[in-house]
Every structure is written in structure tokens, then in C-alpha cells.
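Protein chain data
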Amino acid sequence: MIVNKYYASGLKAVGVMDAVGSYVNLTVTVPSAGNYKVDFRYANGTATNATKNVYANGGFQFSANLPTTGSWDTATSWVNLTHAGTLALQAGTNTIRIQTDASNVSTSDFDYLELHL
């Protein structure tokens, strides 16, 4: 679900991903095949760390641990998580899915992700 968040870039974020099976799909195009490092900008206003599973082109890649940031509604609660994990991507178009699975029911809001070879 797209939610209004004052401190997210563009004033919007992907949120309310706390139910099992909830996800967001992102389509990305990369110039060459390889293992890409993933950085997230997110907020986790709960009292506990959140975990989300990350898939690329239908295959599980890694579980991202998203430490609590204390809020969703302050400038300092939106943080960058550098090298949350690595995705094996093919040259051209890829689909990345960030998903809540039964093993990681928790909530966090996502602003964006960045890929680095």
C-alpha cells in the first residue's frame, strides 16, 4: 500500500506490509548480470526489529534485518541500511519482491532501494 509519509522522498512510501503474504514488486533494469548489493531507506516505528524476505525473478535471495528506528514520523526515523543483502540479477529487466512471510511477520515502511554492483 502506498502511504503518505512526510519524511519519505516524494512524500510517499510503501507501508502496511505486516500481513503474511503482503509484498511490493519492483521492476529494475540493470546493464549487466551480477551480484548487486542492496541498500534500503526505511522506517520501523515498532519496538522490535523487522525482517523482510527479498526475492529476485521469483527466487529467494536473502532476509533483510531492519532494526527499529523508533518512529515512522520524524526525520531521524528514516534511515539508510547499507548492504542489506545481495541480489543475483540478470542483464536487462528483473523483478524484485520484498515480502512478509510467515517466518517474519513484522512491519516497516520502505522509501526506496538502491542497487550497487
